[in-house]
Amino acid sequence: MLLKNKETEDKFFISLKGEIDQHSCQKLRDHLDNVISKSNKTKIVFDFSDVGFMDSTGIGIILGRYKKFKNTKEFYIENANPTVDKILKLSGIYTIIPQI
Fold first, then answer.
1. Of 34, 40, 51, 75, which is least packed with CB atoms within 10 Å of its CB?
2. Are the beta carbons of 78 and 62 closer than 8 angstroms?
């Protein structure tokens, strides 16, 4: 799992790349907690454009970051491919974290 971060005037983008599964979850969770807590932006965007696979572990990681930071940050999802988008829709995550 590779991550790239980018900031704009009002948003902090976290570009995910690779597979989000049980094998990558601990590193990903730690990295996300670190970069989100350090960002002074209130809008956090998860960019899934380079994620080829995600299982329920990925849903847990994204929801966990939402729960941890929901009092100070707004979260959004963008660019999920059809396979990942289907998992996100089935989980109901879009009712909590909207697409942009």
1. 40
2. no
- pTM for the model stands at 0.93
Per-residue confidence (pLDDT) for residue 80, from 0 to 100? 96
**Domain spans in the chain, listed from the N-terminal domain onward:** 4-95
Longest dimension (CA), the chain: 34
Cα radius of gyration (the chain): 12
Tens digits of residue pLDDT in 64-96: 999 999 999 999 999 999 999 999 999 999 999
List the one residue out of 53, 49, 29, 33 whose CA is nearest residue 99.
49
Q: In the chain, what is the straight-line distance between the N-terminal and C-terminal CA atoms, in Å?
A: 23
